[in-house]
Amino acid sequence: MKITIVSYQKHRNTGYQASEEEYIKRLSRFVQINLWEIKSWNGSTKLPDDLSKSSFRIGLHANGKQHESEGLAKHIQELMNAGNSHFVLAIGGPEGMPTSVNAQMHERWSLSPLTFSHQLARVVLLEVLYRSFDLLNGGR
Predict the structure, then answer these.
(1) Is 54 left (phi over 0), alpha (psi -120 to 50) or beta?
(2) Beta-strand runs (E) in 25-95
(3) Which of 3, 39, 116, 136 has the smallest number of Cβ neighbours within 10 A?
(4) Whether the predicted model's global pTM rises above the 0.70 cut
(5) In this structure, are residues 101 and 45 in contact, taking their beta carbons and an 8 Å threshold?
(6) CA separation for the pair 132, 140 (Å, rounded)
(7) Is residue 33 within 8 Å of residue 139, measured between CB atoms?
(8) Which of 28, 38, 15 has the alpha carbon at shortest distance from 119?
(9) Which helix (H) or strand (E) covers residue 116, if one does?
């Protein structure tokens, strides 16, 4: 199983780097995690072909589907059971998700109705994914 997180990254905020590394380390027991940084989102930006082909793409939106922890773990299991082995999760930039990237998504998820910085959203997403895979593997 492989997960790629695509996010806008104007500059590296080292305040979140240790948290990201910790969750990537924890997740590595279950899945391969890749972080893909986009320096500039615009209306014509699209996901590269190597990310958009043969992957299940999920856009993170404040108005997307919200899951509780157990429900998200179950949904992830259902997606994997359906044959999906590569998830691409996209976090929009300061102006949101570019329309062309949004059109490439299969689903929309929400971490919260609140808006977070993309750096914090990435850490929260990594934690949520870790919790889901931990639950799927017998954790609490």
Answers:
(1) left
(2) 32-38, 56-65, 86-91
(3) 39
(4) yes
(5) yes
(6) 10
(7) no
(8) 15
(9) none
